[in-house]
Amino acid sequence: MTTEFITATVLDGAFAAIAAIGFAIISNPPRKAILISAFLAAVGHGLRYFLMHSDMIAMNISAASFFAAVSIGLLAIPFAKAIHCPAEVFSFPSLLPMIPGMFAYKSILAITQFMQTKDESASLKLLVEFCHNGATTIFVLFALVVGAAIPVFIFHRQSFTATRLLKKLVKR
């Protein structure tokens, strides 16, 4: 591993952390949850970048997104218990920077151009591009949802402990 690759991985995580802070602030969570969202986004996005660009592994974006989402979900459960806040409060903003917006945009652009073109060879190319980008978008979104849900199913009791503690604190 070169220092450029490590730097790129860390920068990718740092930019995801900044985006996660913005997404987390929208829902007005406790301040600790905002910092945890940033940390989880940095870890998850950095892991996805590492898995996609490493010479040893070189996964596709959907598989790498799945493992990144699982890591975010696994890390969210102990943080939820520590600050007595539901894990979803900081795991969802952490996942949002991994939504494949560029693939979705290219998919819509290709289908729009497909509807406007009259050239058959260009239409076939645009249709293939639409299918490729649309399928990539769907598979990455599916990987994020399933990856974030698996830790909740595995650690069912621990994932809901934070909300029960929160209810007890509110009743006092």
Describe the model:
- The chain has 172 residues and is mainly alpha-helical.
- The protein has one domain (3-99, 148-171).
- It is built from seven helices and no strands.
- The chain has helices at residues 3-26, 31-53, 61-83, 88-95, 101-116, 120-154, 156-171.
- Helix 2 (31-53) packs across helix 4 (88-95) and helix 3 (61-83) runs antiparallel to helix 4 (88-95).
Q: Shape from CA axes?
A: globular
Largest sheet: none
Q: Distance N terminus to C terminus?
A: 53 Å
> Count of DSSP helices?
7
Structural class: mainly alpha
Low-pLDDT runs: none
Write the H/E string, N to C.
Answer: HHHHHHH
Radius of gyration, CA atoms, in whole angstroms: 19 Å
Break the fold down into its secondary structure elements and pairings.
Blueprint: H1 3-26, H2 31-53, H3 61-83, H4 88-95, H5 101-116, H6 120-154, H7 156-171
Helix pairs in contact: 1-2, 1-4, 2-3, 2-4, 3-4, 3-6, 3-7, 5-6
Q: What are the key terms here?
A:
172 residues, mainly alpha, 7 helices, 84% helix
Short overview:
The protein is 84% helix and 0% strand. It has seven helices and no strands.
